[in-house]
Amino acid sequence: MFILDDPFTIAVQLPPTTDFMKSYHLTVDFEVWFMNRYTPPKNECFRLETRRTVQILLQPGSLQTVSRSLVFDYLANSAVILTMYSSLISVLPRRRKPPPDPVFFILFLFYFCDFFYFIKIQVISTKLRTYHLSVCTALLKSADSIEIFFKRFASLTKIVVAEGNSKMEDTMAELIDRLEKSEKPWATLEAECVQLSARLSQMFTHLVQLFTSNEQVFNYMYEEYHDWRLRLLGEVFFFQERTPSQLLAPEYSRYLDLQNVLSNSKYLKRLPKCPIFCVDTDSPMENCPIIFEERFVSKASATSPNATSPEIENKLLTPILKRKPWMDKEALLRRDSGSSRSLRLLKSRRKSVDSPRTLITRSTTFHNSPGNRSTMIVTSENGLIIGNRNGNRTLSPELPRRISAGETPNSSPEKSSSPRNYEVNSPSTSASSSPLVEPNKDTLRIKALVEFVKEREEVKRKLRGKNYEGWLYSEQSSPSFRPPPSLKSLSSCYARDAEHLVVFVHGLEGSSDDLTPYRNILRVLAPNSRLGFLMSRTNQCETWADINCMARNLLHEIKEHLNVEGLNIKRISFIAHSLGGVIVRAAIGIQDENSTWLHPLLHTFFTINTPHLGLMYLGKSANIGVHLVQWWKRSQSIYQLSLKDAVSFRDSFLYNLSTNHAFGRFKNILLLGTPNDIFVPSHSALLESCKASTKDTSAMGTAYR
């Protein structure tokens, strides 16, 4: 980890016809250049590794502040933390045409007009009043938002903010009165803009000097951004409680219909966007991940997350509130007390590893351990981490709020003992206040909030029309999300005394680097959990061969890795993609001395788009592709997954695999699939019922069921 600590300033000149009620965006490219450390530091020796395009929000009338991490690459822990302060600092009004000759204009009005006071009415036009109102309001609101930001972090910066005697409304009324009484309104407008701009520019300069090097303010803003992301996630995270008896019910997936309901509504478009938006990694609101979680609990609890009964609240939240998330050493993989989970993420592309936003997951637990809960981690392209774990972080059921200077922090920072004096005063005034014509942004924000709540309730009504009785995570009093990951923890993520080995197994024609992003996520989220990692590479060139042979190769690789590293492993978990999940099941099911030593150590099994039920009952295009691969590659593994490796279906590899009880040897099972995957259907990845198989009366359909 390198601390750059390199602040820089970007000055942006907006067009002359700027509307101060609208928002603008500045596009900035951040690039990572690499040079060999053993070569002389020359410019021609650097090469461009990667680039990220960022859109920075520019909103006249308010200070925008945010601190977020910007990830550059999935295959390495390459990231920087950006802290942004953006504000309007000056406005210089200019007239397109020079004013008329005042002597000629006065004589013209004197001879041809009935009333001499008509001079003032003609000079101060409605357009001038409107422009004066919008410009002065934007400058005063920007200064007011900076002053609020100073007050929020006054104790951390050891400063004392002295408030002025007048409010913004009084100051605005004085400026309007001064314009009305002026004989040269344009000159008055220019003078007032220069005065307000000078004060605003000075305040912003002091803000940059005081806060760019303050680590406490930076940490607070970073946690605030993480909280904003969780609030945003809670608005698209649906959950539903069901009984364990419904887990094996012959129910078919209907989540594509629910996705269409959400996609056709205005609900997603009303979600706010981060002030620093990365085009390459962040997802637009209309294409953000939609998550459906099914909770299978042993006892029926409240149907509403808003129930106030203490008895009901204990049933729902006691397992979550027992321990804080940062008190757990095993932050990622733990037991579940008789419960199972199902996560469904929609709106995706085809490749499951390259596009992990399109996911359906189903997990279950075979060993009951009171007081513990299993943890499920799902990553998406925009960097969101979804986890079910113990925690007491509370999400508000309100609209995900945009991080701005006008918001009050959840808890006041600690006060310092030796403050410095810094005075932020508003211009004094003695004029009486008058009502403003400028629309209040607080009123617009409340109106947007009301519209958002209406759209959310309309979406929930349509979902209930589809027989979905679920709730949003934002409506839950205490959802279990983890604290924000810190990039500073990367220095201690390579533990020599690992006690928990996580084995990553790639899929068909894959490599050991396919699951590297998942390993990096575990390193960032659980740096002190004593996790060891093994990226399996023994079957990189043999994925078309017999699955039983690949299973024995995997067992031999794990045993050899433990002997070479000399690790005292107490737990072993598997994260497998595609064919890798079938290989792991076959390896665990081998009943000889090469695998029995592994059974007491098995902990968690996490599969990603694994064809547990084979490659039958696909679409027409997928069937053509599978038959083409079988004819071209003569692959034994494809024959085994298609129930064509034996004369009798009950003698096939896949049928025997379903009877080896490999799933039952793990404490936690998490199955993850996607409805849009072409070659691995979601019912095969999630062990669900299939409509086509229930209608098939042949011998293959009977064996499949």
TrEMBL record:
**Region described as Disordered: spans on this chain:** 337-439
Q: List the InterPro entries hit by this protein, alphabetically.
A: AB_hydrolase_fold, DUF676_lipase-like, Lipase-like
Protein name, as recorded? DUF676 domain-containing protein
Is Membrane found in the keyword set? yes
> Is this entry keyworded Endoplasmic reticulum?
no
Pfam families tied to this protein: DUF676
The record's keywords, sorted A to Z, are: Membrane, Transmembrane, Transmembrane helix
The membrane-spanning stretches of this chain are: 74-91, 103-119
Where the record annotates domain DUF676, the positions are 497-691
Which stretches are tagged as biased composition: Low complexity?
382-393, 426-435
Which domain of life, per UniProt? Eukaryota
| Residue stretches of biased makeup (Polar residues) | 358-381, 407-425
Tell me the first and last residues of the signal peptide.
none
Gene3D superfamilies from the entry? Answer: alpha/beta hydrolase
- PANTHER family xref list: DUF676 DOMAIN-CONTAINING PROTEIN, LIPASE ROG1-RELATED-RELATED
